Fold each of these.
Amino acid sequence: MSILVTGATGTIGSLIIQRLANAGAEVKALVRQPGKGTFPAGVTEVVADLTDVPSLREALASVRTLFLLNAVTPDEVTQALITLNLAREAGIERIVYLSVIHADKFTHVPHFTGKHTVERMIESLNMPATILRPAYFMQNELMVQQTIQNYSVYPMPIGSAGVSMIDARDIADIATAELLRRDRAPSALDRVTLELVGPQALTGAAAAKIWSSVLGREIAYGGDDVAAFEAQLAAYGPECVKTLKPTLAMISPGL
């Protein structure tokens, strides 16, 4: 029996696969197209689509533990619900699901609504699972790196409340630990929800100070105008807005 990892070629999925392989686990990496990813020795590539029932049913065969990660897409909830129902059909009782912090609080934001819907589905099906709710990924800071370097301004309007950013590698460490804990347990474990945050909440001024230290020059904080920042993001395309929208929602729930 194996551990199946969805989102296998993404940032979190690939990190988890490497860690599971290092731990000696039997790992299957789910991809939509063959040869799309490069995986560690011993990892089995499985080709399936989360919206294609026959291929996904086959992928879940002989799987003991499932890591479920759904990308932010229009059919995100559909993918998750299909996967959960087929996992239940296959008798899988060991699941780790990657949600988002405060999924039940910012339900007016589509990204949060989708994750919260899946959480409720896991609950309604009474599925033994670990629900991981990570805060804003530190790696998302790379999206504003060019702006910082070009204009010497830290543009994220995170204010004085701050954001407890967390590194994707830390998320992968925790997810891997939970997958192994459940996979190695003699029977299904109780459902738990874990909020994943960094060691401190970084304010706008604190983040600017860190960038100043790294770049060796003064980086100013751009201020707390969330609406103006979101308007500026539109110039970089919808993908940028979609990625940073969850953080904007945590900063200003009215958006």
Amino acid sequence: DSVTVDQQYPGHVLGTISIVGNKAGTHAVTSSLDCQIRVLNLSSGSVEKTIDAGPGELWQVAYSPDESKLVSGSQQGKINFFDIETEKLSQEISTQAKFVLSVAYLTTRADDVVLLQSPDGKHVACGGFDGFVGVYDVETGTLVHKYEGNSTAPDSTNDMHAYRTKPVRSVAYSPDGKLFAASDDMHVNVYDV
């Protein structure tokens, strides 16, 4: 069996880094090295909005729990929140990371059969180029949890999660509130937050 392209959207100027769909399956959002976020209408096949994220590389993008905002990481070490309606930056959180590569909202499972999530929206996690993993309170912008590695691990330990220094490319929450962090050190770590 062969697979055919159903739809193709006009491309970003530079490489597309991430894509995420909304809960209803009507829209998807892409982020790119061209510092743009695009909102795609999956029904019409059109690009509905293009949001300029400003200077510096844009990496992973995610919907806020109520899907009114998009959250992304920046090369300046910030978590940026963009209002989808106005297409403007509405909030930013300065992190301790050198370059925020990945972002994820804490969510909770609403139904064990259907993979829908009923998010509380209180915390956002990020992973950085320098191995930093942080969880922030969205309302106050304060650091709630920090997982950071050292540059060298003692010879007597294989506890690499405590000594992460490689870029954290992806973070995600499980329905039961555990935080996953995947990095260039070839490990996926699970944190109980």
Amino acid sequence: MASNEDIHIWIERLLKGDEEAFEFIFNLTSQRVYETVFAIVKNRHDTNEIVNEIYFQLWKSISTYDQSRPFLFWLNGIVYK
């Protein structure tokens, strides 16, 4: 996995609306997010819908992310909401 510093470069791009940055972050984190959600709901269809919603929320709320904190902790906050 990329370092927190590397992720911050992509987050800066995402904050400017860069779809390639969103795709990079999705590809970097989606497997972990999917596995976490599936462990909770234990249903593939529901998991897919929830994961889609998580990344929609990430896109909408990335401006609230505090870059002094680890990105994955922030993302996990979205997952568990």
Amino acid sequence: MRRGNTGSGSGGGRHRSGPPRRAFSLLEMVLALSLIIMLMGGVYGFYVSTMQAREAAVRSMRDTLLMRALLEQMAEEIRHVTDIVPDNVGFIGTEEELTFTRLAIPHMGEAMRLRDRVGDDSKPGLQDFLRVTYKLEWDTSGENLDEDGTPVVYGLLRNSPPLIDPNPAYQLSPEALTKLEEDTGFKLDDGAELPRLPPSAPEIIAPEVKYLRFKYFDGVNWLPRWQATGGSAQQASGGDAGTGELGDGTGGTGDQGAGGDGSDLAAGLGGEREPSDRVLPQAIQITIGKVKVPHQLGDFDIGQAMEEERLDNETWHPDRWTIRVYLRQADQSLLSTRSHGIDVGNDLGIESGQLESGLR
């Protein structure tokens, strides 16, 4: 017997009921939010690391461009070095300081202004010699110290005096000076025009540079020091260069000063000097950096210094940049440079085989 539809409803239709729908539980919500937070954190971390890497790359590229431009500027000046100078002070190089004389085109505008001021009185024109010094400027007062207690480094200093004195007092005697003035018409002891020249003061061209090292290649080894004057000031005067007293020159009297009449010196020929006094290195290596290396205190030990340098060369320094400048003016036969390099090594007390060899 079929039972009738006892349900009530306006339509009288059959009521259909599906399975009950489940909502998200609290645990599921927590897991979902955790996954979303982890995903967003990963994306943000990737973004931050990418931006940091980009900033580091831009900073490194900017530093590299700046240091490379600075090295190219120094190399360009060194390539024009000359060993023939009027005042007998040529190439003097240490690990942290380099002084050299280069050839440069005189500023003709300044020369014309000088000519207009002096009128008909003949005066020697501006020289085509330019003396340049590069070195690190340290605080020598002892008052300014870094956090590590070492003196402050102000940066890379460049000094370029506007004029090289063509008549050093220890080189020309009064008789030779009078003879030179009669022959040339120039009064080299007249300094009336010197104040008209533009003043020159040492300038810190790169405050970012806190590390500077020079090395000099003699054809076989890299040396920490090179002095092309070789005591030429003392040889030229024939006396004590520190006191400035005149001696007997190279076989002459004290009036001759330079071992002769001295006219060659004023003519820019450098006078009578030993061949080793005008020897230039084959190449110069310049290394600059942004991290300071304090000076060594106490007694200097060449063996310890070379060992520290060897360990330093084996360590990669991302904050340093190096360039090597080859000098075409050097002796291409390597005879004089090699001989001079051996003398420098002997003076420093460096034994054979201790030096860094070759161009790597």
